[in-house]
Design goal:
This protein is an alpha/beta fold. It folds into 2 domains: 7-131, Rossmann fold; 138-229, Winged helix-like DNA-binding domain superfamily/Winged helix DNA-binding domain (Arc Repressor Mutant, subunit A), CATH 1.10.10. It contains 8 helices and 12 strands. It has a 5-stranded parallel sheet with strand order 2-1-3-4-5, with helices on both faces. Helix 3 (68-76) links the parallel strand 3 and strand 4. The two termini are 36 Å apart. Bound molecules: calcium ion.
């Protein structure tokens, strides 16, 4: 069956050297309505991204010669491609890899083995986030953040946050579901705040959770990786 190309159809580039997995992914993603191109190695991936910009890249970290991290950095360091969302594929239990991948610029990750359904859900979530980022009011669940007025309301109650807590919450809430490593949080808070350390990030999180009350549950710890605001 030939599917007519609709203008809203998102284009994906899937990078994976395991041929069997690549075929499974191509089939599932194509069935989901994505326009899918594939690459079996890092060199081809970088070339294909430059030739024709995909809406999102699914990138395996373990690739021969140029690995996924290097591909990620290459994409992030080029003006034309730096904002393309990347979902990386990592081996189960490799938390250090996940942290490195997020810090190299990946937007999200899925650990192997996974069902195509999980990957598809993650792709949709990342595509949603990448189109909804703005400076305006952010509202997730029962929490509402107004950057202009520097105001946070949780469960209809005004919450008094310090400047650092506010910046932290804004970072997490702007992309709900996205995991940030401690280093990424430190980098984003650094501007104007002296000496932010891993430990002080944890302290800020604890304090933020407490102040948000029941809504504080949304500030989630991702063990060995970092923090996210639950969708
Ligand atoms: Ca691989």
């Amino acid at each position: 069956m030939i599917r007519p190309q609709s203008p809203s159809q998102h284009s994906l580039l899937v990078v994976e050297d395991e041929q069997d997995l690549l075929e499974v992914l191509r089939f599932s993603l194509d069935k989901e309505g994505f326009s899918v191109r594939t690459a079996g190695n890092g060199e081809d991936a970088i070339r294909l991204v430059r030739e024709q910009r995909p809406d999102l890249i699914v990138l395996d970290l373990m690739l021969p010669t140029i690995d996924g991290l290097a591909v990620c950095r290459a994409i992030r360091s080029t003006e034309k491609t730096r904002d393309i969302p990347i979902v990386m594929l990592t081996a189960r239990g490799e938390e250090a890899d996940i942290v490195r991948g997020l810090e190299a610029g990946a937007d999200d990750y899925v650990t192997k083995p996974f069902s195509p359904k999980i990957l598809i859900a993650r792709i949709h979530a990342v595509l949603r986030r990448s189109t909804s980022v703005g400076e305006g009011i952010v509202e997730v669940g029962r929490v509402r953040l107004n950057p202009e007025r520097h105001e946070v309301v949780a469960d209809d109650k005004r919450v008094d946050l310090t400047a650092t807590e506010f910046s932290l919450l804004k970072l997490l809430m702007t992309k709900p579901g996205r995991v940030y490593t401690r280093q990424q949080i430190i980098d984003s808070l650094h501007d104007g705040f002296a000496a932010v350390t891993d430990r002080s990030v944890d302290v800020q999180v604890v304090s933020l959770r407490r102040k948000l009350g029941t809504a504080g549950e949304r500030v989630q710890t991702v063990r060995g990786v970092g923090y996210r605001f639950g969708e």
